[in-house]
From TrEMBL:
Protein name, entry field: Phage tail protein
Top-rank lineage group of the source organism: Bacteria
Coiled coil: none
Organism encoding this protein: Aequorivita lipolytica
Name of a matching Pfam family: Phage_T4_gp19
Any one GO molecular-function label of the UniProt entry: structural molecule activity
Amino acid sequence: MQDSNSINPNFLPPSAFYFAVKFLDTPDMDSSFQEVSGLKVALGTESREGGDNQFIHYVPKPPTFSDLILKRSLLPNQNLNKWCKNAFENFVFDPKDIHLSLMGADGVTLASWNIKGAYPVSWELAVLDRASNELAIEALVLKYSSFKKEPL
C-alpha cells in the first residue's frame, strides 16, 4: 500500500490552469481569474521574560492573513463591480464568503480553499500601452478573516 504522503512518480504539475472564484451567497458575482496570490497565514510571537531573567520565552499570537489578490483580464461583471463600487465610493461593506478553486485546463478541480469574510480594499487597472498588444489586466485586492484548504 502506498503512503499518501510519498512522492507519486506519475504526477505532473499542471501546465495550464485558472482559478474559479465563487461567491457563496451571490452566484451572479462568480468569476474566473488567471492569477491569485495572498493565501498566506502567519503566527506572530510575543516575548515574555523568564522567571530568572536569563531566558526570554516566545508565545504565539493569533494568526494574521495576507491580502488576497485576484488578477484577470478586464471583463464586465455588473454585480462584482457593484460590490466593489459600494465599498470604494459609498463606504458600504458587505463581506462575502468565497470558494476559490484551482482548475486544470480540463476543468477538473486540483485544489480549493474556503475564504471567510472577504471584502474589497483595492482595485487596479494595469498600465495600458497603445503600442502593446497585451490584454488589459485588473487586480482586485480583498481583506479576509480566515481561509481553510479543502480536501479533495
